[in-house]
Design a protein that fits this description.
10 helices, Pdz3 Domain, 54% helix, 4-stranded antiparallel beta sheet, alpha+beta, two-stranded antiparallel sheet, 357 residues, 2 domains
Length: 357
């Protein structure tokens, strides 16, 4: 964690050295975002450990020397000098303990719940923040055409204002989310069913390919009507958008593991710092926070040694075998996973630096 923050601060010094104010603002944004997300991650572990009656020796906010500490009945609470995240130290977590209330003596379902809690908190936090941001932005976009864009396929095939797109390639279309999904699934030719004042018409349309900063996108050239601005419609819009948001993260991971997306396209601490430092306004910052939070949560649940998902996998193996792995074997597995993550982090960081500078 500290090495990650150091890289971020070095980035800020080099990239944002033009003014002291911009340096301070960028550093605050980066440190707060990463520190807060790691803090709530550890808070998830802590809360579920307490609920499972597992002894927590220490729950600390920050790292480094303690500037304030208080000993509770079982847990020492500490505020440390460097406010970057925090950590939870549980009895029997690093070394197996026979003491009552230790992590290693808890049932496997309880241990899985404790290990998974941090990532789940990150995911829930991201979903709540994203939902509220979208709900605040307005209502959803319907399937009714308001106008068409000159020179784009929709105008060229004769679509008109007032037309309703009810089907695309035999899939029902109720809103913009449905239409975008249909376009992404078939960019060569789309069969549209149009409701024009009660008459059903069929058109074949080829989306127009446009090169954008985020990559290639395909457009029909239709401007669609927004639904009535009500609380219900805002919540519906937020729910649909949040669903797409979550699925897009999962799909990105799927593409990474299937080879459709290369490791060189992954973003590390320097890349994250670049994006976070460029955010303008609280909404953009919160959106980026939700994106990084859900990515952190989902990635942590991957069954890779040294990640929470790897620990869960070991616990599942223990449940199947009905006995734990040898302690040294488990340590070796974790060290192997940690080594792989270090190499991957260095590679991704190198690519970030090359891409940015």
């Amino acid at each position: 964690m500290l090495s990650t923050i150091c890289i971020c601060i070095i980035y800020v010094v080099i990239k944002r050295r033009n003014t002291l104010i911009s340096f301070i603002l960028s550093a605050i944004k980066i440190i707060f975002l990463l520190g807060f997300l790691i803090f709530i991650h550890e808070l998830g572990h802590f809360t579920v450990a307490k609920l499972c009656k597992v002894k927590v020796n220490e729950f600390a906010i920050g790292f480094g020397p303690a500037i304030w500490k208080k000993q509770g009945k079982q847990t020492k609470y500490a505020l440390r000098l460097i406010p970057l995240g925090g950590f939870v130290s549980m009895e029997g977590e690093e070394e197996r303990s026979e003491e009552s209330g230790s992590f290693s003596k808890a049932s496997i379902p309880k241990r899985i719940a404790i290990v998974a809690a941090g990532a789940i908190v990150n995911i829930i936090f991201a979903i709540i923040v994203y939902f509220l941001l979208i709900a605040n932005s307005g209502t959803y976009i319907t399937n009714e055409i308001v106008s068409t864009t000159e020179g784009y396929p929709a105008q060229q095939i004769g679509l008109q204002s007032g037309d309703k797109i009810i089907e695309a390639n035999n899939k029902k279309i109720d809103n913009l989310y449905d239409l975008n999904k249909a376009i992404q699934e078939n960019t060569e030719s789309i069969n549209l069913k149009i409701d024009r004042e009660g008459t059903i018409l069929e058109y074949n349309i080829v989306p127009k390919q446009i090169a954008e900063q985020q990559g290639e996108r395909w457009y029909l050239g239709v401007n669609l009507k927004r639904a009535e601005d009500t609380i219900g419609n805002r919540c519906l819009n937020a729910a649909m958008s949040t669903k797409e948001f979550v699925f897009s993260i999962v799909d990105n991971l799927k593409q990474l593991f299937t080879g459709n997306v290369g490791i060189d396209q992954m973003m590390g601490p320097v890349g994250i710092s670049e994006v976070v430092s460029k955010t303008n306004g609280i909404k953009e910052f919160l959106y980026m926070m939700s994106l990084i939070s859900i990515s952190l949560g989902v990635t942590n649940l991957l069954p890779i040694p040294a990640l929470d998902g790897g620990k869960i996998l070991i616990l599942i193996i223990e449940a199947i075998r009905r006995k734990p792995l040898k302690e040294q074997t488990e340590i070796n597995i974790q060290l192997l996973g940690f080594s792989i993550l270090i190499v991957l982090s260095l590679y991704v960081t190198y690519n970030d630096i090359i891409r940015i500078f």
